[in-house]
Amino acid sequence: MRTALITGGGRGIGAAISKKLAKDGYRILLTYCNSSKPAEMVVDEIRDSGIDAVAVNCDVTDPREVALLATHPWVSEKIDALVLNHGRYDRIDAKDLDIEHLRRTMSTNFDGAFLIWDSVKNHLTDSARICVIGSQLGTRGSTHGADYSASKAALEVWAKSLAMKLGPEGKRVNIVAPGFVDTDILAGDSDEKRAIRIEEVPLKRIGTPEDIAHTVSFLLSEKSAYITGVVVNVNGGLYLP
Ligand code: NDP
Hints:
By secondary structure, the chain is of the alpha/beta class. It is 44% helix and 17% strand. NADPH dihydro-nicotinamide-adenine-dinucleotide phosphate binds next to helix 1 and helix 5.
């Protein structure tokens, strides 16, 4: 059976990706950091559908925890699909950003993705597919999240570099850049703020985690066999570069 590893796969967009890839026939190895209960619920739901799944606690900023994840038997048995989905976004005013916070964001969003990749890169199948969850803010920038935008921009360019390097080996790497998606990241919005966001989006709705999961599923499938190194914007037309 094929194996998919999804970081932050226990809630939000990551949970939708875990469930969709289970439907696609992967057994699911998902990681969580602080939220064990939602992660276990996702695992239970997937197992109830007859697909194997397991949740592993792994703070991507801690090299020891990442190294431990790499010793999981399903990793040794080779990974077919790697989804680097974890992320933090703290909405700090660009003028108030300090170096500690910048380091914390980079350490999670960028270094964490690198550490995971580095620890499993020798356990990928020959035709492995990697999908990195970026953000529209990684291209556009942000007044409240300059650190987040910088981390996502770094992720995108790093992923494109991997796509170039791994292409000749038969491995593909792509990036999904979501717009506004209904998860805890937007949970603090007032009704007014939400209405403003919806008004901004040409398709006139906030995205769902499933909108992102379906795109990830496509990029990991044979249907996208000739696509690598691209950024797919899934944002209802919000930002058309
Ligand atoms: P959530 O805040 O709902 O989920 C974030 C996920 O990242 C959680 O699973 C969390 O795990 C995990 N995570 C955070 N810090 C760490 C860490 N140090 N180590 C391991 N895992 C960690 O966000 P979303 O589901 O919305 O976001 C998923 C991805 O999509 C992120 O990369 C985000 O930047 C991106 N994105 C989201 C958008 C949106 O509007 N929602 C827009 C654009 C991009 P735990 O809960 O266990 O700590």
